[in-house]
Amino acid sequence: MHPDPERLRFIPFRKRDIVDLMANLPALPEADRKPFREFCHVLQSVYHFDFHQTLETLKDLYAAYNPDRDTRIIDQLVPTDVASSKAKFTESLDQLLNAANYEKMEQAALEAAFDESSLFQLKLKIDFDAFDDVMLYTRGEREKSEEVSALFGLVKKQVTFLNFDRVVLAIRYKPESPETVQGATLLKLFQNVPRADVEMLFPNTRIGMRLLDKMLIGVPAVIGAVAIGMTKAGASLLLLATLIGFWLGLHSEEVELGQAQMIAILAGLAGLGSYIWKQFSNFKNRKLLFMQSLTQNLYFKNLDNNAGVFHRLVDDAEEEECKEAILAYCFLLTGGPLPNAQTLDAAIEAWFRDTQQCELDFEVSDALRKLRELGLLEDKNEQLSVVSLQEALEILDGRWDQYFTYHQA
User: Fold this and answer.
1) pLDDT exceeds 60 at position 153
2) CB 376 within 8 A of CB 329
3) Can you tell me the distance from the alpha carbon of 336 to that of 145, in angstroms, rounded to the nearest whole number?
4) Angle of CA points 160, 163, 168, to nearest 5°
5) Would you say 101 and 360 are in contact if contact means Cβ atoms under 8 Å apart?
6) Is 141 strand, coil or helix?
7) How far, CA to CA in Å, does 259 sit from each of 151, 231, 242, 263, 265?
8) CA distance 317 to 98
9) CA torsion 284→130→302→2, rounded to 10°?
10) 173 has which bridge partners?
11) Higher local confidence (pLDDT), 382 or 268
12) Widest Cα–Cα separation across the chain
């Protein structure tokens, strides 16, 4: 199941913009605006430190499976329980993507996407036998419209399709895979991918011919071959067939070949061979055009690969965690206490809808969990509220100081 394309779990605004918007809310007193920005700065620092630990953990778990590594592997330090190591990496990656508000594409949805007609008019085939595991995550699913060519470019038509703003593909190759990356795990990050074309993101995608493309090449080729056979090469082929029949003993009448007949046979065969080669070249050229279309699209859609994907995802997750916590804290600070989480959720979503024309599916339970873990949330008389700005700054400052506490023996 995919989320409503019009309601995003992802908050499509920069963290800095959210801080500026909240600091300028009319409900926030003028005297509190500077302390509020200081609160946001310390909060971001806390999350930045926490996610740095996440990044280091993922890099350590991925080191043995990274096909791009340029460092040596120390055998004594490689985990002996490979299955457990892979499971831990998968779980850590899944948690990071969830924090960055990505949605995992289940197998049924993936197969449905494969069945959709390609926007780029390509027929793609994937060899799944080479993979041990395939995970695909998306963020920002929405409807888009584009003008595409039809009828050999003679007309243009407008098509509407579902598009992903971001796609993360994680593929683990089998140890016995024929690929050069046996046992490795590939990570790919893409942008602006139509749902019907997710096949083109896979590393071993092969381009096939659609039935229409085969007919466009095959039908004229057959008609042309018949025409040549009946005109230019007809007499030569008939003479050659008679000669072969005599050699095989199918008839007793001897066939005499002079110089003129030999030239005619060779000319006919050369003409037919030239035509066949031309049609074969047409087939290869059309396939090369498809390859070029695929390569160009991948070139502009690829954002990062393998270990580099972690840095982008960690940054995304840090941004999302901060934005959710800042929004929940600010709305409870200026409008609280509130009776329940649903009221807070409705208030934040209504504010985005009315002031930014943006439909959000705000994760209020996740935001409240963050505030509770940080010690900023209060539950008094079954009402939701937050500590004052001064107290929040003291709590976060104390948390930051504990990160670097040194006890001398």
Assistant:
1) no
2) yes
3) 42
4) 165
5) no
6) strand
7) 49, 21, 17, 6, 10
8) 8
9) 110
10) 131
11) 382
12) 115
**Is residue 304 within 8 Å of 312, Cβ to Cβ?**
yes
- Cα 311 from Cα 409, distance rounded (Å): 37
Instruction: Tell me how far apart the alpha carbons of residues 166 and 103 are, in angstroms, rounded to a whole number.
Output: 10
pLDDT in tens, 120-138: 555 667 777 778 888 899 9
| Joined tokens for residue 223 | 């008609």
- The CB density around residue 53, as the number of other CB atoms within 10 Å, is 11
Entry pTM: 0.72
**Residue entry with tokens 């004052």:** 388
Please tell me what DSSP assigns to residue 107. Answer: H
For helices 259-301 and 234-247, what crossing angle results, to 10°? 110
CA 395/CA 393 separation, integer angstroms: 5
- For the chain, report the end-to-end CA distance as a whole number of angstroms: 56
pLDDT band at 1 (very low <50, low <70, confident <90, very high): very low
H helices present in 75-128, as ranges: 82-99, 107-115
- The answer to whether the beta carbons of residues 138 and 109 sit under 8 Å apart is no
Rounded distance between C-alpha atoms, residue 49 and residue 380, angstroms: 31
CA 110/CA 87 separation, integer angstroms: 22
Instruction: Give the type of residue at 263.
Output: I
Per-residue tokens: 68: 């791009």
- Tokens in use for 347? 């208030």
